[in-house]
Amino acid sequence: MRPPLDMSAFAELPGLLDELAGFGAEEGGGVTRLLYTESWRAAQLFLEERMRVAGLETRFDRAGNLYGRLLGADSAAPVVLTGSHVDTVRSGGRYDGSYGVVAGLMALAALKRTCGAPLRTLEVVSLCEEEGSRFPLAYWGSGNATGVYGFDDGEGIADADGITLAEAMRTAGFGLETQTPCLRRDIGAFVELHIEQGIVLERSGRQIGLVEAIVGQRRYAVTLTGASNHAGTTPMSMRADALAGAVEMLALLETRAKAAGDPLVATVGRLETMPGTPNVIPGEVRFTLDIRHDKELKLESFCRDTLAAFEAIARSRGLGFESRCWLATKPTQMDDGLTGLLERACLARANSSRRMVSGAGHDAQLFAAVCPAAMLFVPSRGGVSHSSDEYSTPEQLTEGAAVLADCLYELAYGQEWRR
Ligand code: HGY
Ligand code: MN
Ligand code: MN
Predict the structure, then answer these.
(1) Nearest alpha carbon to residue 332 among 288, 370, 305, 279
(2) 362, 366, 384, 387: which to mutate for ligand 1, most atoms within 8 A of CB?
(3) Ligand 2 centre and the CA of 279: distance in Å?
């Protein structure tokens, strides 16, 4: 496998990521770029301009997914797609998602400059709402592209301020009948480059992670209903304290998750108490659950038994209990053939690599249902992500981009179609 590009093709990559991080940048160094907000829209327009300057054909689909295309000689052949997302978690880092979009953009630009038009069309995509950090739904962009979501699925979904996804989409200039439909039936392969967001590569001293599988995950919205009452005059024996119930549940969740052992993880990322006043017993508590495992049956049984235990706690305290699952993705295998191609690209560049499971969810999970999909990782310093401390070195970022470009070259310029 002859690498078509040398590393100098990606020299600008770290700088471009820093520029992109300017959209939604916060004082403390984090980035908050939520779907359909002004900073998200500005980031997409910035990328569209960079794609256009690189000589790619650009287009948005109706959801706001941004594509850059390098048309292939055989326009009927399946499209080779790379990309990721530029929406972030609140106060997130500058590499999660953005790295795969910018590296993909630079790989297509460099392949165009160096190798001309490909045999098969090559595209890079910046997908919408991978995180699910503004709306209670994740993978909105890749879900629309792969048919998991229909366009009306955005109705009735609202953010914390009560703005619906459909309204926000229209405010950002998308969601119009006249715009390009989202569903793609022409994708032959999807390869996503991403930071690892974990500590495995750093601990094992490897440069590239070859993802064999991505964990399954369930996300829930839980509501506990008790009775708001006076903090001074209500005896402890007469309370229906929703927060005390939540505290007991969260302690049990941690005990159960530790007892289940790795790779099961369970997280309560958000908890709100109402009315949230120091001298009022909380009458209502809402919290989120994020539970993951790489085995579907174990994930299913842990969620089922944990929610049953929560209901028992609620009953014992005279609390109302309601849980709604708003995200359920199954553990997903990546394509062996594509992963082997990535492995050979690492060997050709003498990059050390290792196969691994991803504890983070990714858009590649959605594409894997409709075409061969693969992922490669570069190390995250200290395994930190979803934080302003998220960091990968310029060498790590450019090494990953070069291996991605090698793989895209084989798939789009190679004589025979590799699966
Ligand atoms: O939460 C995740 O797994 C990913 O960062 N969306
Ligand atoms: Mn993320
Ligand atoms: Mn991500």
Answers:
(1) 370
(2) 362
(3) 37
Q: What's the token pair of residue 350?
A: 């003498």
Question: Position 213: which residue type?
Answer: A
Please identify, by atom number, the ligand 1 atom nearest to the C-alpha of residue 197.
5
How far does the centroid of ligand 3 lie from the alpha carbon of residue 370, in Å? 20
Q: How many domains does the chain fold into? A: 2
Contact 253, 265 (CB under 8 A): no
The CATH code of the domain that includes 304 is 3.30.70.360
- Among protein residues, the one whose CA lies closest to atom 5 of ligand 1: 360
What does the alpha-carbon distance between residue 37 and residue 218 come to, in Å, rounded to a whole number?
26
DSSP 350-389: T--EEEEEESS--HHHHHTTTS-EEEEEE--GGG--SSTT
Query: Is this prediction's pTM over 0.85?
Result: yes
CA of 9 to the centre of ligand 3 (A): 24
Per-residue pLDDT tens over the stretch 169-224:
999 999 999 999 999 999 999 999 999 999 999 999 999 999 999 999 999 999 99
Q: What is the pLDDT of residues 387-411, one digit of tens each?
A: 999 999 999 999 999 999 999 999 9
Domain CATH for 33: 3.40.630.10
249 CA from centroid of ligand 2 (Å): 26
- C-alpha of residue 298 to centroid of ligand 2, in Å: 23
**Cα distances (angstroms) measured from residue 255 to each of 115, 140, 251, 271, 300:** 56, 33, 6, 19, 18
Q: Which atom of ligand 1 is nearest to the CA of 361?
A: 3
**Residue where a domain terminates, one of 304, 329, 354:** 329
For residue 62, give the DSSP letter: T
| 1, part of any domain | no
Asked, for residue 2, whether it belongs to a domain, the answer is no
Does one domain contain both 377 and 246? no
How many C-beta atoms lie closer than 10 Å to residue 236's C-beta?
A: 7
Q: Which residues line ligand 1 (CB under 6 A)?
A: 130-131, 360-361
Domain boundaries, position 118: 8-214+332-413
